[in-house]
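Hello,

Following up on my earlier ticket. Below are the two sequence lines again, exactly as submitted.
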Amino acid sequence: MADATALLQLRGISKGFPGVKALSDVQLTIRRGEIHSLMGENGAGKSTLIKVLTGVYRRDGGEILLNGTSIDARSPEEAQRLGISTVYQEVNLIPHLSVAENICLGRQTTTLGFLKWKEIRQRAEKALARLGIEIDVTETVSNYSIAIQQLVAIARALDIDAKVLILDEPTSSLDEKEVEALFTVLRKLKAEGLGIVFVTHFLDQVYAVSDRITVLRNGTYVGEYEAALLPRLQLISKMMGKELSELEMKAADRVATKAGVTPFLKLKQVGRKGSLKPLDLEIAAGEIVGLSGLLGSGRTETARIVFGLDRADCGELQLDGKAISITSPRQASGLKFGFCPEDRKVQAIIPNLSVRENIVLALQANRGWMGYVSRPTQIQLADKFIKALNIKTPNPEQPIRLLSGGNQQKVILARWLASNPRLLILDEPTRGIDVGAKLEIEKLMAQLTGEGMAILFISSDLEETVRNSHRVVVLRDRQKVCELRGEEISEKNIMHAIAASDSDQ
Amino acid sequence: MNLRAIKRNIPFVATASVCLLLFLFASLRYKGFLKLPYLLGFISDDAYLGIAAIGLTFVILTGGIDLSVGGVIGLTSISLALLVEKHHMNPMYAIPLVLVGGVLFGTLMGCLIHFYLLPPFLVTLAGMFLVRGLAFVFNQESIQLTDQMLGGHSASHSLIVFNSTIKIPLANTSIPGTTLIYFVIFLIALVVAQFTKFGRNVYALGGNEHSAALMGLPVARTKIGVYVISSLCSTLAGIVHLLYNVKGDPTSGTGLELDAIAAVVIGGTLLSGGVGYIAGTIIGVLILSIIQAIINFEGSLNSWWTRIAIGMLLLLFILLQKLIQAKKFKTAGTFQKT
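Thanks for your patience. The regenerated structure is below:
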């Protein structure tokens, strides 16, 4: 209370769900004109805290002070009226309506109950101009890129007299340039005196814009720090509650696992019109082959062809020296291939099935309906993988949608591991999950290849690619640019490979 | 700008073009089609369908459905006839009474759908059985309105003469009062959909309910509201049906909910909600009427060909919608890549 500059203060917040204590005695202080990052692993309670703050959930205890007066928002609507606006990770707009409507919806200017479209449009234009963007506000919002939609959502959040702006992972679907544009907007708003709460997984971004950082862990408050005075590694160790030494993955670990020599799967000039130019690719047992490149460079397309989701229209696939053609994912999984797709929410999990059922899925599909996997076996399998992959779930019967992102990802991994594949394709397995889960997945990859599994590893994170791959294939514009091995593998070399071909244009 | 406006409203433009083509075809092929009394005739015949379809459009815009509209027409028609003809109630009281009944019925269904998260299809299906059953329980036979004098006045009189007293003369014919009601409701609906917060919330709800809630829009009020509108419109349609035919009938509006859905979908409203036009629905109804007229003119054709034609047209429009959506999805995809 003593802090005169405090705009928003949360004190002693606690919130429980049946069987779980999501938050206990958490505090957060937002000052005027600051960008405050809220950090924590998945399940640390960030989302719950934000939902309590915005009135989606009711708190069990504690108090929230806005400008020194106690508030108690019962709905997002009420929180908005109080001046607390939120922009969520998934852009929450109405896709079919115009930009102008999306900004003003629910608080349109009216006379005698009739909407004044002209003023609505002008207001939307003004709101966007404040963020420094100029677009046609009469255009349907879904016709714009995700980045613009994100900015429209922010414009909407600011259209009311917002004092606090909460951004819940706003950058997860933006590219670098778009993130920079967003940050410019945030700095501008900060200068106007707004308090901004920023939730993200990207450490770079935290340090690029934050003034302060509040760290949560397991639903409790760890501390508040000045961003400039908190080194990155210390932040990670605070988030994880582990010592720094435990976090370090030595490059030596990678070199230690020697890849097999004879590749069992060969792609010879395999390509597909419109999605991938013909390329060669080989992968041997016990090997991690990294696919690197920018978004849309053909990484996922390559994976899709190998797994039979798309058909190659030229070239030849060889498995154990024999030419084969893979026409369906079903066939691919019969060949003991596994595929963890990029967009796990849409493409991989069956949200309402339990963790156990999600794990057993691929195995059951392989056996066909004749080879029913008995219930005790299912339970045994589920228990085994929950333990092995350290999946955080109250029990195996929990619907998977209730798990955090990282844990969902582990369940998908477990699904394919249960069918004991020869080749596992991982498309961005670590996206949107916390550092701890990331390291566990990396460790697991090393262990699996040690047991003879081959992994095709797709990641946008160069550091991660370098750390884990035995070989790196660099793609650009749907074309293989080069292949790096052993000592050649470095972030610098990959970047050069991508950049060098860029200048050819 | 103009071209873009067309591009944005392809389903609507397609509906309007189909309507125009059918109209041209009929007027060139059949003598007597392009005569004002005839044209006004078939618009008036289907006025009650149009009114019900307008109400239904709001429901479908939110992504819901209302199967009870036909049943409500039947119940309204028979109970109003019963009240006025048998119980000699003054229509001044009887009409508001049935309207209140319609509103209550819509509120009930809307509340069940919203608060108990029940599927609209099933709730309104149950509603349909309920009202249709009630209609027959009230009276199994149709009731002809008669001008019999009782104590110096006839309660039914004002209902019977409604269309002959309230009308707008036009050339050598006139637009009957029931058709005027249809036009007025259409205009009101247009304004509500386009120029009120409620109307825009309806679109928002159908576009993405989760987002609408997070945007702080009044989801409950809007959702229940559309079912009230739909029931109110079908009650009005029942009244119009009674005034037009001067007969209360428990069977009236049987299967009409399906015609209404067809008209709404042909009119360019997506069954998944969020996109659609009140004007489109009117044109959808007009298309159904023209097809009916064409089949009638053909004479030799079995009148059930109307159904087949409507079925084909409906299929065509659903395919068109799918195509547009697929194309939109594709462009959205390329946006993400760049």
